[in-house]
């Protein structure tokens, strides 16, 4: 046992503490609730941190590079960095603890945001690209923090726990874009470009989120969950045939959950990335762009409580189908939106955020349902790598599609792609019946 790196977190000094939780379901539920509170606090800061790149990343690149075709590059770099960070955070969380993995990711994101500010002030393109990669660690951590609340949740609490973590992101994520103007003025007052202002906010927010987790997330929920799983494994050692059947179902659940999240991420990132550029071409200012993106991010996170309850009550697959239908509607509305109508554009971006919300929560719940605590964080990190790479692809291709075609074409293509969620869910149901 001592040679297993996953058990390295369980030192002799922790043993008595672990057994106190193992022997007391009441204490497990109390720790579950306390963990959710800590995750909520960190996610409020984390939400403000991620909003900066979403709102002005494309505009900053457009300004520094002077070409629309590269406007999707920041989203691609950010999500590529997020992919690498997701893998690392998953491994660190599995080997050491959620606390260590998540705190490391947020602090790295803060350092990346500082690098973006310096690159804008010095007009250093290479530093901008490198900093955006590191800044992506904050995005990865913000997403992986949703898993921390599920470690000690029961099967009927998991989607709700995910939703609580996500809805708390709303407060920071909605405030961030609406502070674009204020932070831009602050940036100019300290001698750096206005578009780097939101990244100053991001640096402070990510660092605070990391410190909250590093200091307060004790005892660690994943450490307790692994100890509980080991005890259950010992008690059920004679149920090998049943366990093999469960393993087969779990593999399907992981594939379906990952597919749902990957498709929703591609569609959301592609359309969202080019919306600020599209608006800029038609005379909208930073405040109007901030408002549209703020509403979009609000739709990504604010409905989470209802989505989580529905996923726990009516099922993960029903919400995955709802995700595909909502994203299709978002693509169609964005494609036909008159260029002088803020209201229609807001509607499209709100639907885009809502469809992503349905897909992320239902897909995440499927992943949690389908994993064992002994490998859960590592699997979650690997899946989030695929999600981040999907976002990177969507971000990179979105600028090229718009440059060689139009924003309407991009939006319609995204909506049609989202329909693949429906046959994916049908496939999973037919396999489960078999």
Structure report:
With 434 residues, the protein is mainly alpha-helical. It has a single domain, classed as Growth Hormone, Chain: A (Up-down Bundle). It is built from 17 helices and no strands. It has helices at 12-22, 25-65, 73-95, 98-122, 125-148, 158-178, 180-189, 197-216, 221-235, 240-281, 286-301, 304-313, 316-336, 342-369, 376-404, 407-418, 421-433. α10 (240-281) runs antiparallel to α14 and α11 (286-301) packs parallel to α14. The two termini are 38 Å apart.
CATH topology category name = Growth Hormone, Chain: A
Please tell me the total number of domains. Answer: 1
The quaternary structure here is: single chain
Strand portion: under 5%
What is the topological layout?
Blueprint: H1 12-22, H2 25-65, H3 73-95, H4 98-122, H5 125-148, H6 158-178, H7 180-189, H8 197-216, H9 221-235, H10 240-281, H11 286-301, H12 304-313, H13 316-336, H14 342-369, H15 376-404, H16 407-418, H17 421-433
Helix pairs in contact: 2-3, 2-4, 2-5, 2-6, 2-8, 2-10, 3-4, 3-5, 3-15, 4-5, 4-8, 5-6, 5-15, 6-11, 6-12, 6-14, 7-8, 10-11, 10-13, 10-14, 10-15, 10-16, 10-17, 11-14, 12-13, 12-14, 13-14, 13-16, 13-17
């Amino acid at each position: 046992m001592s040679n297993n790196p996953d058990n390295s977190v369980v030192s002799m000094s922790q043993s008595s503490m672990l057994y106190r939780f193992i022997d007391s379901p009441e204490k497990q539920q109390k720790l579950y609730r306390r963990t959710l509170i800590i995750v909520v606090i960190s996610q409020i800061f984390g939400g403000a941190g991620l909003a900066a790149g979403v709102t002005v990343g494309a505009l900053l690149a457009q300004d520094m590079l002077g070409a629309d075709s590269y406007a999707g590059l920041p989203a691609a770099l950010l999500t590529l960095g997020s992919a690498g960070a997701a893998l690392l955070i998953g491994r660190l969380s599995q080997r050491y603890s959620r606390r260590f993995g998540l705190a490391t990711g947020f602090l790295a994101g803060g350092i990346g945001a500082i690098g973006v500010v310096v690159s804008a002030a010095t007009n250093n393109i290479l530093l901008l690209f490198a900093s955006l990669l590191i800044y992506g660690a904050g995005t990865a951590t913000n997403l992986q923090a949703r898993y921390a609340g599920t470690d000690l949740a029961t099967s009927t609490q998991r989607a709700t726990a995910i939703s609580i973590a996500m809805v708390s992101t709303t407060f920071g994520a909605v405030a961030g874009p609406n502070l674009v103007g204020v932070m831009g003025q602050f940036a100019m007052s300290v001698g750096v470009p206005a578009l780097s202002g939101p990244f100053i906010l991001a640096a402070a927010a990510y660092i605070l989120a990391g410190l909250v987790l590093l200091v307060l997330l004790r005892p660690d929920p994943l450490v307790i969950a692994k100890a509980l799983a080991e005890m259950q494994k010992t008690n059920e050692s004679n149920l090998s045939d049943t366990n093999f059947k469960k393993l087969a179902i779990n593999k399907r659940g992981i594939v379906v959950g990952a597919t749902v999240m990957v498709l929703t991420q591609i569609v959301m990132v592609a359309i969202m990335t080019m919306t600020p550029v599209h608006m800029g071409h038609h005379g909208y200012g930073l405040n109007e762009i901030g408002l549209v993106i703020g509403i979009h991010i609000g739709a990504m996170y604010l409905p989470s409580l209802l989505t989580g309850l529905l996923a726990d009550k009516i099922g993960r697959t029903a919400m995955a189908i709802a995700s595909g239908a909502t994203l299709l509607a978002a693509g169609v509305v964005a494609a036909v939106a008159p260029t002088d109508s803020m209201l229609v554009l807001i509607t499209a971006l709100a639907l885009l955020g809502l469809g992503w919300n349905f897909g992320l929560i239902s897909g995440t719940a499927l992943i949690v349902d389908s994993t064992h605590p002994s490998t859960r964080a590592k699997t979650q990190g690997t899946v989030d790598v695929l999600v981040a790479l999907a976002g990177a692809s969507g971000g990179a291709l979105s600028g090229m599609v718009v440059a060689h075609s139009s924003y309407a074409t991009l939006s319609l293509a995204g909506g049609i792609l989202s329909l693949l969620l429906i046959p994916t869910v049908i496939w999973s149901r037919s396999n489960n019946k078999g």
